[in-house]
Amino acid sequence: MYTPAENRYEHMPMRYCGRSGLQLPLVSLGLWQNFGHTTSWEHQREIVYHAFDRGITQIDLANNYGPPPGAAEENFGRMLAADLRALRDELVITTKAGYEMHPGPYGDGSSRKYLLSSLDASLQRMGLEYVDIFYSHRYNPDTPLRETMGALKTAVDSGKALYAGISSYNAKRTREALAVAEDIGLELLVHQPSYSMLNRWIEDSEHAGTSESLLDVLGDSGLGAVVFSPLAQGMLTSKYLDGVPQDSRRAKGGPLRAEYLSEENLARIRALNRIATDRGQTLPQMAIAWVLRDPRVTTALVGASSVAQLDDTLGALEHLEFSESELAEIDRYAVEGGVNLWGPRSSDR
After folding, report:
1. 20 to 30 Å CA-CA from 161: which of 114, 206, 216, 224?
2. DSSP label at 71?
């Protein structure tokens, strides 16, 4: 029987999500990797429970997280049933739909049918009556935004989601989504984009051919930002400084592509590692602190393959401040590394 740590709220800073009244921990746990049926449930449970003991109250999922798709939600549902049910009101549980979940025209995309049936299936897998945040996982040019935003509104109006969000929409599409949402009476809470020292697209005002960056849009509109992949899929760790280890995502054939580990990127990573060392931090600790330097970022969404790895990441909270000279030195190497796996899937085609 799991008993949560009594001091779980004493050391985790919180930020309000945009201009809402919802507070989120500076570091949140994502179950994208390591929480499917290829990892033991006991090992997963150890990580999730330890995260909660450390003050991580937001658990982020999606319908297709696994492997296989749906497995992460099933495994997390087992944790809820076993030990976490009484703690439901202390958790922010989120899920998403927008990528392929099953064959056929109704298992992918952003249609009303897919989004709402996916939410029902997610709730069933987790044994929940509602999720705290339901996201449109990506912009889809083949579906009118009014239909997608309308499905999110139905999810909230029905009580199956407390809040609605979008993920990986660029600045232009975010503005369009906000306009549609306002027109139909939906209040969007949050945006979930990728962001790291090697993937700075949300700062770029030219990314969508507009005069404002995605961060500008979020700050102006009052949306929170839950940034994912702040460690660039593990590249911003010590793991790849001396080659590709046997137990890495790259060696296992994960989404980390071989071309991402170019000599140029590895040289940047090594330089950033030296800066982190000079700051008295590990590279992942500095990478987390760096994305949190901007107050428009609500929380850094991290994965974990072990309790030790999670604890190392959370060490970032002990040193969040940067001097101007440190930021300038980081900017010499924190440049686009061509690692935005999600960019083309949220394009303007």
Report:
1. 216
2. H
Structural domain boundaries in the chain: 15-233+292-319
Q: Give the position of tokens 């990528």.
A: 99
Asked if CATH classification 3.40.50.300 holds for the domain at 15-233+292-319, the reply, yes or no, is no
| Token pair 């991290």: residue | 302
pLDDT digits (tens, 9 = 90+) for 84-128: 999 999 999 999 999 999 999 999 999 999 999 999 999 999 999
202 DSSP assignment: G
Nearest Cα to Cα of residue 267 among 208, 334, 322, 216: 334
Residue 1 buriedness (CB in 10 A; 0-12 / 13-18 / 19+): exposed
Whole-angstrom Cα distance, residue 66 to residue 61?
10
Q: Please answer whether residues 167 and 115 qualify as being in contact, where contact means their C-beta atoms are separated by less than 8 angstroms.
A: no
SS3 content of the chain, % helix, strand, coil (to 5): 40, 15, 45
